Amino acid sequence: xxxxxxxxxxxxxxxxxxxxxxxxxxxxxxxxxxxxxxxxxxxxxxxxxxxxxxxxxxxxxxxxxxxxxxxxxxxxxxxxxxxxxxxxxxxxxxxxxxxxxxxxxxxxxxxxxxxxxxxxxxxxxxxxxxxxxxxxxxxxxxxxxxxxxxxxxxxxxxxxxxxxxxxxxxxxxxxxxxxxxxxxxxxxxxxxxxxxxxxxxxxxxxxxxxxxxxxxxxxxxxxxxxxxxxxxxxxxxxxxxxxxxxxxxxxxxxxxxxxxxxxxxxxxxxxxxxxxxxxxxxxxxxxxxxxxxxxx
Length: 296
Fold this sequence. Notes:
The protein is α/β, with parallel strands linked by helices.
């Protein structure tokens, strides 16, 4: 037998501390006792507990007073809304050449195997200006501006007309609004497109502001939209939660010092792409009211 001095022993079950004995005291253990195994188990339990602490927002959910949402993939069903719009835009850019249009879509992040856009791709996360620069690199600056105006008009009209809200979004936003959260949208769509979409789905009245890529000097992942929302509401960045389905949403949250960065799996992002930057990853915004209430 070996005598071991115990200063503080913690017993864990499934990552939760269920008992504690405080020393100093001495206990006898068999010589064959696997100390390395215990050290590993204790270390892993601590890591799980620390991870859970970060993931459940112990930073202070009560301090969150405002919420900025990404639009597409967060409030709006990205694939149902934008698949047809993207195809029309690509066909116009290719002058009706189907093969050329498919090539442009692939450049913008379309994956024909999954029939969807890849996480953080240009079409999933970028602006129309990014798409124009990708598809028409040979155009002059003036020609690119003309093309941008044309494609902004297409995306504003078609994106709002075809907008499909994600399940549970209306109820969740109404619940958050009733709790007096200040709500806003920060999107890399145009401001006009965002405002028309919110009106089309009957939710515009719930939001204090909508910031498209053209409403701020620097779009996501720059912090400009968060700063603008804080200027409008009088809130601090630490009182703002940013919610989105792509890394650039969470990059903006980190760059601006948001109090909470929430990833959602309702768009093009995956748990693997979002978890490294998020405080929590939820299935969708439908889960947000319960999470903020401490029941998530």
